[in-house]
Amino acid sequence: MANRSYLYSANTLPESPEWSAQKALHGISEYKYDIPLVFKILLTGNPAAYRSSIWETAEKIAIAGDYSRGLANLTKYLNRISDPAARPLVDEAIQFLSAPTHSRKRFILECGEIFDLTEGSLTEKNSALLAEIQEISANIDYLPTPQLANAQTGFLSKLFKVKAPDPLLPYYEIGLGSWSEILYFDFSQGEA
């Protein structure tokens, strides 16, 4: 297991008759060992729980949300970031997600691997994630934005050649900079 959360876009919803005819997911991003804030914000467009497209289970362990509303909420959030050094990551996210090649009607978030890292019901974990996404949606204007990490190094760090942390690390940790059409689970063959 790769222990990742996966973000896709799709024109149909899982469990719909259209979905049964053609399961077409377009890769957007994946993130190791966590569900980053950016993914959660992108799902804020009327999110709902659905069955997984990856795992054969009757449990509803995936979440789908409106693409355009989620993108609008993310854009609004990212535009509050004032650090000029982070602007390339912000611009990259907005350009990638706004491109017609990636845009669909829905975002689909698959977190089964993340849920499986700890004991407990996958359905309950997905329900808790859905509640968190709904809370984020209600408070989108008040979410704190990351700040550049302090990249200063002291005398001992320089002496022992300790590398300073990447000042953009807080932005990578919320999910920026990880856009890709090619994910571990690839459904591109089903795309029309």
How would you summarize the topology of this molecule?
Elements: E1 4-10, H1 17-21, E2 26-32, H2 37-42, E3 48-50, E4 62-66, H3 67-78, H4 87-98, E5 106-110, H5 112-115, H6 122-138, H7 155-159, H8 169-173
Helix pairs in contact: 3-4
Largest sheet: 5 strands, antiparallel
The ordered string of helix (H) and strand (E) elements is EHEHEEHHEHHHH
Strand content of the residues, in percent?
Answer: 5-15%
> What class would the helix/strand composition place it in?
alpha+beta
Compute the average pLDDT: 87
Helical segment count: 8
Number of strands: 5
**Poorly predicted regions:** none
Q: Strand order, biggest sheet? A: 2-1-5-4-3
| Shape estimate | globular
Q: Terminal Cα separation, in Å?
A: 28 Å
Task: Write up this protein.
The longest helix is centred in the C-terminal third of the chain and has 17 residues, at 122-138. This protein is α+β, with helices and mostly antiparallel strands. It starts with a strand and ends in a 19-residue tail after the last helix. It has helices spanning 17-21, 37-42, 67-78, 87-98, 112-115, 122-138, 155-159, 169-173, and strands at residues 4-10, 26-32, 48-50, 62-66, 106-110. Helix content is 34%, strand content 14%. A five-stranded antiparallel beta sheet has the order 2-1-5-4-3. The model has no long low-confidence stretch (mean pLDDT 87).
